[in-house]
């Protein structure tokens, strides 16, 4: 990767030290698929009429998918991750046309024929408020209309995912 490409894909705040340690508390990374999370991505994709939906966790050096529909992989590097940008936001990131967004226009996931054009991601946070991942939908077509009621509704499902992660983390911790 050239220096120019490294600069484009570099966003050091996404690499907060200890994010992976926080995720380790959840004991969920690299675990098998679970129906409850698969159902969430199916619902989000259906509600938003999107071909791709993902529940992901963003660690110090990778992005891992607890559930995905339409991608066919369980992990990707942070270099091309939309979600690594999303976790730097307060609650939500929406990209209506990735080809026109300077953060993503040169991204190989966008640049490819049939590439990603639209992204909407709702942050998943731990109890302390640290963004640990997203529930997101992606599309191969632009959505100039922006955040529709459908997308808003699907993103509320992200709050359920947060609760499921927190319940799992709390049950994995030893009792005092």
Keywords:
176 residues, alpha+beta, 6 strands
Strand proportion, as a percent range, falls in: 15-25%
Mean pLDDT: 81
Order of helix and strand elements from N to C terminus? HHHEEEHEHEEH
Radius of gyration from the CA trace? 16 Å
Unreliable runs, pLDDT <50, ≥5 residues?
1-12, 172-176
Number of alpha- plus pi-helical segments: 6
Task: Bin the helical content.
Answer: 25-40%
User: What's the story with the biggest beta sheet?
Assistant: 6 strands, antiparallel
Q: Could you give the count of β-strands?
A: 6
- The secondary-structure class comes to alpha+beta
Order of adjacent strands in the largest pleated sheet: 3-2-1-6-5-4
Q: Rough shape? A: globular
Q: Give the termini distance in whole angstroms.
A: 49 Å
Write the layout of secondary structure elements.
Layout: H1 3-9, H2 19-26, H3 35-48, E1 52-58, E2 62-69, E3 75-77, H4 83-86, E4 92-95, H5 108-111, E5 118-125, E6 131-139, H6 149-172
Antiparallel strand pairs: 1-2, 1-6, 2-3, 4-5, 5-6
Commentary on this structure:
The protein is 35% helix and 22% strand. The protein contains six helices and six strands; from the N terminus they run αααβββαβαββα. The chain has helices spanning 3-9, 19-26, 35-48, 83-86, 108-111, 149-172; strands at residues 52-58, 62-69, 75-77, 92-95, 118-125, 131-139. The protein has a six-stranded antiparallel beta sheet with strand order 3-2-1-6-5-4. α3 runs antiparallel to α6. The model is unreliable at 1-12 and 172-176 (pLDDT under 50).
């Amino acid at each position: 990767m050239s220096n120019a490409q490294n600069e484009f894909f570099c966003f050091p705040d996404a690499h907060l030290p200890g994010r992976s340690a926080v995720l380790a508390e959840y004991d969920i990374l690299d675990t098998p698929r679970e129906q409850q999370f698969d159902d969430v991505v199916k619902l989000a994709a259906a509600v938003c009429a999107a071909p791709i939906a993902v529940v992901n966790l963003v660690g110090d050096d990778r992005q891992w998918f607890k559930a995905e529909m339409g991608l066919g992989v369980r992990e990707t590097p942070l270099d091309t991750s939309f979600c690594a940008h999303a976790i730097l936001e307060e609650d939500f990131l929406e990209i209506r046309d990735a080809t026109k967004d300077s953060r993503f226009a040169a991204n190989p996931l966008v640049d490819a024929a049939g590439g990603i054009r639209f992204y909407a991601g709702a942050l998943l946070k731990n109890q302390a408020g640290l963004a640990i991942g997203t529930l997101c939908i992606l599309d191969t077509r632009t959505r100039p209309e922006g955040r529709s009621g459908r997308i808003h509704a699907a993103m509320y499902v992200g709050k359920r995912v947060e609760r499921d992660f927190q319940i799992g983390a709390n049950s994995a911790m030893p009792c005092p």
